[in-house]
């Protein structure tokens, strides 16, 4: 069963419908607010407003070196870089106390875009009309500070969440992050860590077989490692593994692995049906929910206790319908 406690997620404030944009408007995302909002508690952040800029205000842009750009106003060319960097360093430290399980950034924002933000040539637009095509290799100043401070925390942009695969991967990760935080809230025991790992084995495998194997070795030698070091190593491996995108090929491998648990109980017709459905998924004729529905049916029918405990089969609420589209 999933925890009934809402997951705390950071988010660019305008995506919630808050009128904090430069023009006094917002960029409300209905899916984030009305669908995912049933399961998460948002912590809104608007760097521009929080550094004291008014609403409405002059627009901002990144200029100069994409790896270390400056943040300037587009008409009067005021340099906001020191103020934004000072704010960002302070804000990410404050956000440590929020126990966040992820963050959703505003696409293309010079403060909050997580990738492909436009970076213009470092010239005063009031004196030079044609500055040429901007580079699209920038990262928003606050987003960069956040991701450097929380390198393993799940992050996404609202624009990228329109991709079904990226959306499913992000939501899967924030629910896994919540389960990990709940484990950390308990007194440490190797037994609890082993149980956590066991229940996540197939989920980890669907992202990275390499990490699946290395984490198994880590747990096997758990008694030989200092608890704090073990927790840190496991956390890094676990979150790094889930950061790697699951693919049709990886899911197919896991589905075949699951099929092995039923080889002694399924009838010949059931085995054939199972393999046909897996093949249909592998050929991308049906979404992932189709073979998983059959998996869950067999788990209940034959009371397969190990698979019943696997988060892979139900990593997030079915009401989100995320695996209907991947």
First-last Cα distance: 23 Å
Helix and strand element order:
EHEHEEHEEEHEHHHHHHHH
Integer-rounded radius of gyration:
23 Å
Number of distinct helices: 12
Overall number of structural domains: 2
Mean pLDDT, nearest integer?
Answer: 95
Main sheet properties: 4 strands, parallel
Strand order of the largest sheet: 2-1-5-8
InterPro entries: 2-thiour_desulf (IPR007553), DUF1722 (IPR013560), UCP037004 (IPR017087)
Organism: Halodesulfovibrio spirochaetisodalis
Protein name: DUF1722 domain-containing protein
Describe this structure in words.
This protein is α/β, with parallel strands linked by helices and 326 residues long. The protein has two domains: 7-162, no CATH class; 168-326, no CATH class. Helices cover 45% and strands 10% of the residues. The chain is built from twelve helices and eight strands. The protein has helices at 30-35, 47-50, 81-95, 141-149, 164-184, 190-205, 209-220, 227-243, 248-260, 268-282, 289-302, 305-308, and strands at residues 7-12, 40-45, 60-63, 70-73, 103-105, 117-120, 135-138, 155-157. A four-stranded parallel beta sheet has the order 2-1-5-8, covered by helices on one side. Strands 4-3-6-7 form a four-stranded mixed beta sheet, with no helix packed on it. Strand 1 (7-12), helix 1 (30-35) and strand 2 (40-45) form a beta-alpha-beta unit. Helix 5 packs antiparallel against helix 8 (227-243) and helix 6 (190-205) runs parallel beside helix 8. The longest helix has 21 residues, at 164-184. The chain is elongated and about 80 Å long. The mean pLDDT is 95.
């Amino acid at each position: 069963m999933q925890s009934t406690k809402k997951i705390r997620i950071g988010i660019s404030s305008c995506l919630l419908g808050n009128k904090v944009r430069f023009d006094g408007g917002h960029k409300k995302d209905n899916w984030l607010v009305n669908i995912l909002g049933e399961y998460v508690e948002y912590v809104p952040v608007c760097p521009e407003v929080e550094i004291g800029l008014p609403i409405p205000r002059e627009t901002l842009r990144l200029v100069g070196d994409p790896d270390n750009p400056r943040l300037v106003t587009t008409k009067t060319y005021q340099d906001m870089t020191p103020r934004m960097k000072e704010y960002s360093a302070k804000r990410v430290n404050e956000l440590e106390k929020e126990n966040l399980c992820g963050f959703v950034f505003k696409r293309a924002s010079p403060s909050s875009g997580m990738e492909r933000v436009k970076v213009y040539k470092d010239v005063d637009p009031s004196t030079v009309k044609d500055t040429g095509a901007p580079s699209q290799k920038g990262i928003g100043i606050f987003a960069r500070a956040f991701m450097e401070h929380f390198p393993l925390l799940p992050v996404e942009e609202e624009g990228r969440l329109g991709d079904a695969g990226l959306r499913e991967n992000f939501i899967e990760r924030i629910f896994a992050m919540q389960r990990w935080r709940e484990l950390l809230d308990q007194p440490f025991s190797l037994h609890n860590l082993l149980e956590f790992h066991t229940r996540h084995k197939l989920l980890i495998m669907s992202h990275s077989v390499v990490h699946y194997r290395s984490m198994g070795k880590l747990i096997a030698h758990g008694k030989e490692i200092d608890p704090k070091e073990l927790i840190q190593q496991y956390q890094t491996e676990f979150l790094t593994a889930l950061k790697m995108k699951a693919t049709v090929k990886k899911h197919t491998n896991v589905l075949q692995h699951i099929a092995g648990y039923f080889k002694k109980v399924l009838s010949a017709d059931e085995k054939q049906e199972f393999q046909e459905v897996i093949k249909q998924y592998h050929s991308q004729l049906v979404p992932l929910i189709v073979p998983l529905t059959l998996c869950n049916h067999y788990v209940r029918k034959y009371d397969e206790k190990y698979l019943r405990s696997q988060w892979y089969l139900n990593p997030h609420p079915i009401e989100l319908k995320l695996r209907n589209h991947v």
